[in-house]
Specification:
By secondary structure, this protein is mainly alpha-helical. The protein has one domain (about 10-120). About 80% of the residues lie in helices and about 0% in strands. The protein has 5 helices and no strands. The longest helix has 23 residues, at about 10-30. The protein starts with 9 loop residues before the first helix and ends with a helix. The mean pLDDT is about 90.
Length: about 120
């Protein structure tokens, strides 16, 4: 191994899997409720909601696989952030609503975990 690099630990692998469970579950929910989710995207005034939804699903699926596998984990975390940041701003910005505030804080926490993946996996 090159100087300055380290082999990810078992704990690191478990953490990466746990971090991505929410994205994998979301992909399944979006596949099974495609029309409903596309409608929610359209209701926010975004054009081409089915195309945006497919792109979101691709970012989550590919990003999760990369993060979980540990190969190109940094790229995977970036892909997940590309999905998560605008989604959080568009759909969970109403902090006066307790449920939306919980979603916002959850997403911010996940962003923190993804930033740690970026920092720890210089691939």
């Amino acid at each position: 191994m090159a100087e300055g690099t380290r082999r990810p630990s078992l704990l690191d692998g478990i953490a990466r899997v746990l971090l991505c469970l929410v994205f994998l579950n979301a992909v399944l929910g979006k596949v099974t409720g495609f029309d409903r989710v596309a409608g929610a995207i359209a209701a926010k005034g975004l054009p081409l909601s089915p195309v945006l939804l497919v792109a979101a699903m691709a970012l989550m699926a590919v990003g999760s696989v990369l993060v979980i596998s540990g190969r190109k984990a940094r790229l995977g975390a970036i892909l997940l952030l590309v999905f998560l940041v605008p989604t959080t701003l568009l759909f969970h910005g109403d902090v006066s609503d307790a449920q939306e505030r919980i979603q916002l804080l959850k997403n911010l926490s996940i962003m923190g975990g993804l930033l740690l993946v970026i920092d720890r996996h210089p691939d």
